Amino acid sequence: MLALRRSLIALVAIVGVVAGAVTAWVVTEASDGGAHATRGEAAIGGPFELVNTEGETVTDQDFRGRYMLLFFGFTSCPDVCPSALMDMSRALDRLADAAPAKLERVVPVFVTVDPARDDVVTMAAYVENFHPRLVGLTGTPAQLRAAADAFRVYHEKVMPETYFGGDAPERHEKGDYMMAHSAYMLLIGPSGGYVANFKHEAGPAEIAAGLREHVDAS
Q1: pLDDT tens digit string along 101-141?
Q2: pTM (whole model) above 0.70
Q3: Is the dihedral of CA 199, 118, 153, 151 positive or negative?
Q4: Contact indicator for 134, 53 with CB cutoff of 8 Å
Q5: How far is CA 89 from CA 51, 173, 191, in A?
Q6: Which domains are assigned to the chain?
Q7: Pairing with 34, which of 42, 59, 120, 142 sits 20 to 30 Å away (CA)?
């Protein structure tokens, strides 16, 4: 059942990234009057205003000049989120060993899609379980919805029996809920533009290799 759920979430992730990328290709008129496609940047990313674990308001502008390694999830997530954040942490440790100058240019960021439960205190306690540089961001429902939309991240409140395929653990009380969400990790460049994405199945070695490839240490 766990493998099935991960496959479904990964499929959502792939669809979201592909949809965003496809809409970003620009069709222009060629010099001979015909239409041709030119290479463009994926339409992923944009302005946001959220709150960090110190209770301070931060925006996309606070990350300019650095790369964001970005993941959306929620602290009550039983498997996908902690495994993704652990992979992120281990990838950053690998990057520190192989290319420390590049590590300094990367900011790992975890944004909740569950603002009702993931307040500042909850997020602060949660991110301490992962990389010491991990930035946790929360906010109002409207703020988080705008951020998720900007980065083409799917998220939806579902009941435990839906999330777990009818086999909800007893610890989930009646009326409780889970968050179905995209499970890809995004690399956002110093100017705020999309650079790359890593699917959920990508392990620390693949993520670290991608960072070495895409991050400019200058």
Answers
A1: 999 999 999 999 999 999 999 999 999 999 999 999 999 99
A2: yes
A3: negative
A4: no
A5: 22, 32, 23
A6: 2-214 (3.40.30.10)
A7: 42
